[in-house]
Amino acid sequence: MKPHILIYIISTLFLLNACEKKEAQSQESKTTNLVAVDTMTISKSTQGLKPSLRLTPKAQEAVKDWLLYQNLTKRLDSLQGVSLGTVKNQISLLISTFDGQGEAEEEIVDLTPDNLETPAISARLLSVETKLKIANNYAQKTEPNPEEIVNAIIELKNAVQNLNLQINENFTLTIEEMLKLLEQEVTDTTSSPKTEKPTPITPRGKPPVKIFKPIQ
Q1: In 104-140, which positions are buried (b, 16+ CB within 10 angstroms) versus exposed (e)?
Q2: What is the reported pLDDT for 158?
Q3: Rounded distance, CA 162 to CA 127, Å?
Q4: Cα–Cα–Cα angle for 196, 200, 201, rounded to 5 degrees
Q5: Over the chain (216 residues), what is each successive 10-residue block's mean pLDDT?
Q6: Do residues 63 and 113 lie in contact, with contact meaning Cβ atoms separated by under 8 Å?
Q7: Rounded to an integer, what distance in angstroms lies between the CA atom of residue 91 and that of residue 152?
Q8: How far is CA 164 from CA 39, 77, 129, 136, 157, in A?
Q9: pLDDT of residue 166
Q10: How far apart are the C-alpha atoms of 140 and 117, rounded to whole Å?
């Protein structure tokens, strides 16, 4: 073999080896950076957060078997004060839950309780899903901004509070219903017979005798 051909082959091998090392180092650097980003802590914040609104007893009874709502409310608290990796995982699970309900509705399988199937509640639920996906977009950035993620989570929690408000309102009495109940109470009161006070009876069954003292 000619010397210059041998030199060319050896040079090519060195070049290929160098490229492979550089690519491996680049991949390792990306992996290390990804792990470092996922360990970032998403701080807790209440700035701009609406006061917590609990469901009324009737509303709680209505949503107790609604899996979408139960998963949503249980995972909200796991979106702050944890690592970015945890936030990504929790948001991903919630999005999957929403997608699952959407697919079920397309297959004419209704997963929402009948007494919660109202346009107002559906609109609030859509708002929650939109806020959830916005938070996911911020979390999935190559260089995520913690402040943006925190603000997005606050917006998501506020959307859930609005949903709770609408669910509660769905079980409150209308003015017409309250007036009807009031009218019924008045009718029942006026129609009930008045009871007369019984005449006191002596032990022998005779009316009591009145005794008048003489005037002195």
Answers
A1: eeeeeeeebeeebeeeebeebbebbbebbebbbebbe
A2: 97
A3: 9
A4: 130
A5: 50 49 47 67 91 91 92 90 94 91 59 86 95 96 94 96 94 69 70 55 54 54
A6: yes
A7: 12
A8: 32, 16, 14, 22, 11
A9: 95
A10: 33
